[in-house]
Design goal:
The chain is mainly alpha-helical and 233 residues long. It has one domain (13-231): Transmembrane di-heme cytochromes, Chain C (Fumarate Reductase Cytochrome B subunit, Up-down Bundle). 64% of the residues lie in helices and 6% in strands. The chain is built from eight helices and three strands, in the order E-E-H-H-H-H-H-H-H-E-H. The chain has helices spanning 23-47, 57-88, 103-116, 131-156, 163-168, 177-209, 213-219, 226-231; strands at 9-12, 15-19, 221-224. A three-stranded antiparallel sheet has the order 1-2-3. Helix 1 packs antiparallel against helix 2, helix 2 crosses helix 4 and helix 4 (131-156) runs antiparallel to helix 6 (177-209). The protein is elongated. The chain starts with 8 loop residues before the first strand and ends with a helix.
């Protein structure tokens, strides 16, 4: 197992508290969440205007598009930062926590799947993401990448000479404009479907494993057993 930094452990019998999620991971996590909220609200308004301000109905639309555009660039920066941290972060943030490259990790994923299918009574606790969750996050991260691509392609229609139009405009040779818009809109709803599932799963694991996974989203620390520590040493 590779380590990029010493494990910070505090003795809390019968468990230990370990700093699992580094500050950059937590910042990116919450940045992406708030970006999803803002992009969803403004994007929905752009597609279905439901508000006018004053005597100029274009004011609200212009404001929504401006906020949507700025937030999109923040989202792009956050996604890039997380991808970089997948190669530079600690052992629980790295790419091999999302793509199960070793046999032990794949076996762990099967045990977690058995738990979700009610074929196993106890949750197979892990310090970081379990293998099944890691695989799910890999798929989930493909959604913002697709969202970013289709968003830049749509933005490029307003600026045909821009670089992002140059790199994304080819999509319209394969898909019609309404289809690209539909995909951009669909990914928003799929993302919110994941958010609901993510909250449910995190709450379930917190109750079952009693490892502080919910609080770790804010403070970065989880409670782990002696066996879990031994498995990672």
């Amino acid at each position: 197992m590779r380590y990029t930094e010493p494990i910070e452990v505090e003795s809390v019998k019968p468990k230990w508290t370990v700093r699992v999620w580094q500050l950059p991971v937590r910042i990116v996590h919450w940045t992406i969440f708030f970006c999803v909220v803002i992009l969803s609200v403004t994007g929905f308004y752009i597609g279905t205007p439901f508000l006018t301000v004053g005597s100029d109905p274009q004011f609200a639309m212009g404001t929504a598009k401006a906020i949507h555009s700025v937030t999109a660039w923040v989202m792009i920066a956050a996604v890039i930062a997380r991808l970089i941290w997948a190669f530079t972060g600690n052992q629980w943030a790295r790419w091999d926590q999302f793509i199960a490259v070793d046999k032990e990790r794949r076996e762990q994923g099967r045990e977690v799947l058995k738990y979700y299918l009610f074929l196993r009574k106890e949750y197979p606790g892990t310090i970081g993401h379990n293998a099944l969750a890691g695989a799910a996050y890999t798929a989930v991260y493909l959604m913002p990448l697709a969202q970013i691509f289709t968003g830049l392609a749509l933005k490029g229609l307003d600026s045909p000479e821009s670089l992002y139009a140059y790199f994304t405009g080819w999509i319209f040779n394969w898909l019609a404009l309404p289809t690209v818009r539909f995909l951009h809109h669909l990914i928003m709803w799929l993302t919110w479907g994941f958010v609901v599932h993510h909250i449910y799963s995190a709450t379930l694991v917190d109750i079952e494993a009693k490892d502080g996974v919910i609080s770790s989203i804010f403070g970065g620390r989880k409670q782990v057993t002696k066996k879990q520590m031994e498995d990672h040493l």
